[in-house]
Design brief:
By secondary structure, this protein is α+β, with helices and mostly antiparallel strands. It has six helices and 14 strands. Strand 12 and strand 13 form a beta hairpin. The protein is globular.
């Protein structure tokens, strides 16, 4: 993956747009203004991170743009991610975020099947794991995990079931939409990492929930939009709760924002583009 250009508001450093590829400056401004209108309409205030992957004019025929927007407010995170042609991806992402913020806290906003999500179920050659994410998993009910799945626009979400203490995945699957898979109860395979990669790629799966034979913890392997793989692992025995996240947001002392024009600034060399915007756990670019 190449380098990112990072744009931020001269007034509000917490509003950041990272671009990859030849993204026009006018498109960055359009996205910032659109996000500003949405946030004001819903009375939302908090850090904003946007990522735009623009196809190189010389790269193949697909010409797919990837747009991701993440906000955090009042102890909750919201993220949308859309792939589509040209500037339409950003437009669809803004509409998706507007719809998500307009829903009640207990209501799922995402339709199923999801027309905005490309089908990543395809038999392929073995692909590399290019990103590994170790997280202290949230301990929540499956219903609360489904809300995270929807709010963060994930296809699958790894958590610890508060009722059973088992590593569990909630995912979009089948005709009913949301499905829950629990390690030790459902048919969650015990696999080495290379075995999991082979099963996902050769089996044409978009993601795979499996148990690591050494740690006996759940892992979530999934396809990225570029075709490579990412792996989410449960880190140690510690877990994080919703209350922990709310406390971190209170400590930040978030202030009200004003949205202005964006200017490009350099990304510190010590901070990778992937880690700088890793506010979510699953399914990022």
């Amino acid at each position: 993956m190449g380098a990112f250009d990072v744009w931020s508001s001269g007034i509000d450093p917490d509003f950041v747009v990272a671009t990859h590829g030849p993204v026009p400056a006018a498109e960055v401004t359009r996205v910032v203004r659109g996000l500003g209108r949405i946030l004001r309409r819903h009375g939302v205030d908090g850090p904003v991170r946007v990522r735009l992957h623009w196809p190189d004019s010389e790269s193949g025929t697909e010409r797919i743009t990837l747009a991701q927007a993440t906000i955090r407010t009042l102890g909750k995170a919201y993220r949308v991610q859309v792939a589509g042609p040209g500037r339409f991806a950003a437009t669809f992402a803004l509409e998706r975020l507007d719809r998500r913020l307009g829903c009640g806290p207990e209501e799922l906003s995402r339709p199923w099947p999801d027309p905005a999500r490309p089908n990543l179920s395809a038999v392929t050659e073995l692909r590399p794991i290019v990103r590994r994410k170790d997280f202290r998993l949230q301990v929540v009910s499956p219903a609360a995990a489904a809300q995270v799945l929807d709010a963060m626009d994930y296809d699958a979400h790894l958590f610890v079931d508060a009722g059973t203490g088992a590593d569990t995945v909630v995912c979009w699957s089948g005709p009913l939409g949301v499905r829950v898979l629990t390690r030790g109860r459902d048919n969650v395979p015990l696999l080495l990492e290379d075995e999991a990669v082979a099963r996902l790629c050769l089996g044409g799966l978009p993601y795979l929930f499996f148990t690591d034979p050494d740690t006996r913890r759940g892992r979530l392997l999934y396809r990225r939009y570029d075709g490579d793989l990412a792996l989410v692992c449960a880190a140690g025995a510690e877990v994080t709760t919703i209350a922990d996240e709310r406390g971190r947001d209170r400590d930040r002392g978030l202030q009200s924002r004003a949205i202005a024009a964006c200017v490009r600034r350099s990304l510190p060399a010590a901070i990778g583009a992937e880690s700088s915007f890793a506010l979510g756990a699953e399914k990022s670019f």
